[in-house]
Backbone:
C-alpha cells in the first residue's frame, strides 16, 4: 500500500506542476510580481494537500509569532524536497539565493526570474559575490524574507551537522533578524526516496537571533540553537510516529541523545 500511495503521489505531484505551469503561465507573467506569487504559493499548498490526502502525511507549524515584521532571514534545517516549498503559503514575500543553473531551465527559470530570485555561481568569488550581496540587500530592503539553508544541501534526519559560514557573512552584511526553523521532513519524504510515509509532525519556528552579534558568535549560536531544537524535535517526532522506518543517522543520533545525562 505504501508503494501504491507513493507512486500515486509522485504521479500527481509532477502532473500538478506541469499542468499548472502550462495553464497558468499566461496569467502568471501578466500579473505584477507580488500578485503572481499567489500562483506558486497555491501550487505549494496543493502539494501539501496531496501529501495529506494520498500519503497521509500532515504537519502543523508552531511559533509563527516568532516571525518578525519586515525583512528577515529564515534558516531552516534542510532534509527533503518537501521543505523547499511546503512553507511558501505561510511566507509573505520570500526570496531565495539559488544556483544560477536553475535559471536556465525553460519556463521554471522564467518563473524564478519574475520573482527576482538571486542567482549565484557557487564557485564564484570576489566581484561576483559582492554583486550577489548587493542584490540581497536590495531585496531585503523591500521587506522580503530571505531563505537560506545553513548546511547548504539536504542532510538526512539526525546526520552530523555540516554548517557553512556563508550565512554568517550575510547576517553581518544585511543586518536583519535570523529565524531558525526545525522539522524532520526527511522522515516522511526522504532524499531520493520513492516511498513517502504517513504520519503527523511539527514544524517549529524558533525565536529570532537579532542582528548585531559578531559573525563568529552568531555562527556558533545558530548551530547550537538549531541542533538543540532539532534533537528535541527528533525525539518528539519519532515518539509520535513509531511506525516510521528510521535512517541509520537518525537511529544513531537518537541513541546519542538518550545516552546524554539529564539536564
Residues:
Amino acid at each position: 500500500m505504501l508503494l501504491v500511495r507513493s507512486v500515486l503521489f509522485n504521479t500527481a505531484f509532477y502532473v500538478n506542476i506541469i499542468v499548472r505551469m502550462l495553464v497558468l503561465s499566461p496569467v502568471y507573467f501578466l500579473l505584477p510580481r507580488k500578485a503572481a506569487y499567489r500562483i506558486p504559493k497555491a501550487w505549494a499548498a496543493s502539494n501539501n494537500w496531496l501529501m495529506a490526502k494520498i500519503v497521509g502525511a500532515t504537519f502543523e507549524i508552531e511559533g509563527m509569532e516568532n516571525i518578525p515584521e519586515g525583512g528577515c532571514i529564515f534558516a531552516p534545517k534542510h532534509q527533503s524536497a518537501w521543505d523547499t516549498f511546503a512553507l511558501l503559503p505561510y511566507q509573505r514575500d520570500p526570496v531565495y539565493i539559488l544556483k544560477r543553473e536553475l535559471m536556465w531551465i525553460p519556463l521554471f527559470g522564467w518563473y524564478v526570474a519574475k520573482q527576482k530570485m538571486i542567482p549565484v555561481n557557487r564557485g564564484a568569488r570576489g566581484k561576483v559575490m559582492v554583486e550577489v550581496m548587493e542584490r540581497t540587500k536590495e531585496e531585503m530592503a523591500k521587506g522580503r524574507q530571505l531563505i537560506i539553508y545553513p548546511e547548504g544541501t539536504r542532510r538526512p534526519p539526525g546526520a552530523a551537522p555540516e554548517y557553512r559560514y556563508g550565512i554568517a557573512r550575510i547576517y553581518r552584511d544585511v543586518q536583519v533578524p535570523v529565524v531558525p526553523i526545525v522539522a524532520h521532513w526527511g522522515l516522511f519524504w526522504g532524499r531520493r526516496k520513492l516511498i513517502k510515509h504517513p504520519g503527523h509532525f511539527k514544524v517549529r519556528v524558533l525565536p529570532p537571533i537579532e542582528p548585531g552579534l559578531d559573525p563568529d558568535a552568531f555562527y556558533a549560536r545558530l548551530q547550537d540553537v538549531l541542533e538543540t531544537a532539532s534533537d528535541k524535535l527528533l525525539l518528539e517526532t519519532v515518539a509520535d510516529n513509531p511506525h516510521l522506518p528510521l535512517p541509520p543517522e537518525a537511529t544513531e543520533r537518537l541513541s546519542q541523545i538518550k545516552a546524554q545525562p539529564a539536564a
